[in-house]
Every structure is written in structure tokens, then in C-alpha cells.
């Protein structure tokens, strides 16, 4: 393949989505990825309604629906109180053709995107290629790899994760903070639905909150992942120990048979937004542009939304459109990253971990009242399903 028109750093959900949308627009695109295959890190697995809408025309949504688990209802619980509020997304049937959350692991979305990308001769993914630097001039961008190769294109999209080399190469600040505690993900085949938990559930507790959700896994009946906060001082080996993780689950949901744990994962959690999503011929998307805690399942979705808009704007400029289209991408995505993605995920964590008894009781009462009032429930679901944020971004000039 000759020099592409666009280079994409990173073959995660954002990078592959951008590549597919560019290819569908007739743009020659090359993706550079340091891993040798889609990375199966067990984190993101929730796909919200706007994401399914945006991917529908490409055929990706149909494949996702075939592999995923539909979750029309999600719960908010108190560890001692039980179910506090239950929210049914069917109330949004007039606002979206997909009034539910879809549970499907990130790596499966990546493999679906790759299958669709293979249909385009003017698109390619180079695996095992590590981006080391990026430099731009008036005519284009040159990417240097750790292997010593050079790649040239008119534009570069950095979708290379929270430690983005592309972002750093352009000296773009990544402002925000890191939580002191790491998050532990425990995966079990035990069916939590049989214990009354919705496919997506959040459990508030001033000492040890958690979030539970079901994923398809490799075969039915699927797996359940439970996310816990951890003691910042606890040794990593102790936290990752599966016997200890099983005890942690049993403390949350007692079971005389105990729990089988098939996987544990521990990771640091950040809340950061890049100072700019566009610098000249370089754009940022996904975790390269923003990172957040996973409560609400919004990060991956937001990155896909970035990618679709970035691809649309780059294709328009390459077709002769005004360069300001790229500035508008920056304004739209950065604004909602701060006002919606960051604000909502920070608030979600605060609600789950609230230690002040009066504040916690007030928040639980507020959630009960919201779920019981159809108008309030609808407004809440428009926000938590990311529909409101998408509409807000589109309204930014």
C-alpha cells in the first residue's frame, strides 16, 4: 500500500472505528498497533444506545447484537438496603431504536471492526509496530516507529491510549488527577442474576462499594465481572490472589458454595482530559484524549463517538472542506468530555462511596424518587445512556 492519507495510532475501539469510517468514506488509512492482535484486557464491555446508532449503517451493530447480551434494566443498590432504584431503558423507545445497554467485551468489538475493515483494499492494520514519535509540517505528518520505520500521511489520529505517544509528541497537556486506590476486577461464572442482580448493577457502600455486570464470555451462560476499590497500601499479589478475591465476593454476596474466580485484574484509575484534541494535522481520540473511571461504562463509548466524528471531519477536509471543521471537532468533543464524561463518572464514584450518613441517605432517597417518577427517570436515563451528551456535542458551533 502506498502512503495513506491518514495514519491512525492504536488499534483499540477508537482507532479501528476511525479507520473503518475513513475507509467507508474512500480515504486510504493505515493503523499502527504495538500489540500483535486485539488486546483482551477485561475492562470495557458496555455499549450504550448512541454507539449502536452510530455504528448501525456500517453493519457493526448487527454483529454486536448477535454476540452481546441486552440489558434493558439496570439497578442501583445499597449494600445493606438492597435494591434502591431500578431503571428501565424501554422508557427511551421513542428516543432511540436501541433502548437498552448491550454487554459485549471490548476485544470482540475490535474483532468485529477488523472484519469489516478487511473489505477495503485501501485500509490496512500493521501489528507489532510501536509509534515512537510524530512530527508535522505544513504538508503532512511523519510517524517514526521504534523499529526505525517512517510512515507519512496528511493527517494523524492518535488513539493510542492514556499514555499516548502521539499526544506527548505534540506537547499536549493531559490535565486531571489519579485516584489513590486501584480498581480490582474479579470475574466469576456464578450467576448473579439468580441472586436478584440486574445484568448491570451498582452497589453503594461507605466502606466497600462495587459494580457488577455480565459479559458473554467465550460461551453461554457467560461471566460476571465485579469491580471493587482496593486499599492503596495493599500488595498487588495479595489483591490479585483468586482465593482472596473469592472471599471478597462472599463478603459482598454470601453463598454457602463459595465462588469460583476465573480471572482477576488490577489497574490504576484516572480522570484526565487533554488540553487540546487537535493540534494542526494531529487529532486525538479515545483514551489518548480523555480517561475516566469505568462507573457508568462510558469511556469506550465516548472514544468511539470521538472516532466517528474525527473520521467524518478529516474526510470532509480532505474532500476540500474548511479546516475549521477540525477545530470544531476539538471544541465539541473536549467540551462534552469535561461537562459530561468527567462530571458524570466522578459523580458516579462519589455516590457509590459516600461516607457521610446524611449525604448518603439523601442521595439514595433522590434515586428512589427519580426511578419512581417517569419524567425524572426519563431525564436521568437520557443522561446516563449518553444520549444527552451526544445531543449537547452536536449543538456546539
Explain what the structure shows.
The protein starts with 5 loop residues before the first strand and ends with a helix. It contains twelve helices and 22 strands. The strands form five sheets. It has a seven-stranded mixed β-sheet with strand order 6-5-15-16-17-14-18, sandwiched between helices. A six-stranded mixed β-sheet has the order 8-2-1-12-21-20. Strands 3-7-4 form a three-stranded antiparallel β-sheet. It has one domain: FAD/NAD(P)-binding domain (3-Layer(bba) Sandwich), CATH 3.50.50.60. Helix 1 packs parallel to helix 8. It is an alpha+beta fold and 397 residues long. It has helices spanning 13-24, 49-56, 60-67, 106-117, 165-169, 236-240, 242-252, 299-318, 324-353, 357-372, 374-384, 387-394, and strands at residues 6-9, 29-33, 46-47, 69-71, 73-78, 82-88, 101-103, 123-127, 131-136, 141-145, 150-153, 155-158, 174-178, 183-188, 200-204, 210-215, 223-229, 263-267, 270-274, 278-279, 282-284, 290-291. Pfam families: FAD_binding_3.
Proportion of strand residues: 25-35%
Assign the CATH topology: FAD/NAD(P)-binding domain
The number of helical runs is: 12
CATH class: Alpha Beta
What is the straight-line distance between the termini?
37 Å
Mean pLDDT across residues: 96
Low-confidence stretches: none
CATH homologous superfamily annotation = FAD/NAD(P)-binding domain
For the largest beta-sheet, the strand count, sense and barrel status come to:
7 strands, mixed
- How many domains would you count in the coordinates? 1
Tell the overall outline.
globular
Query: Which class of secondary structure composition applies to the elements?
Result: alpha+beta
Round the Cα radius of gyration to an integer and report it.
21 Å
Second-tier CATH architecture: 3-Layer(bba) Sandwich
Domain FAD-binding: 5-342
Protein name: FAD-dependent monooxygenase
GO molecular function: monooxygenase activity
Keywords: Monooxygenase, Oxidoreductase
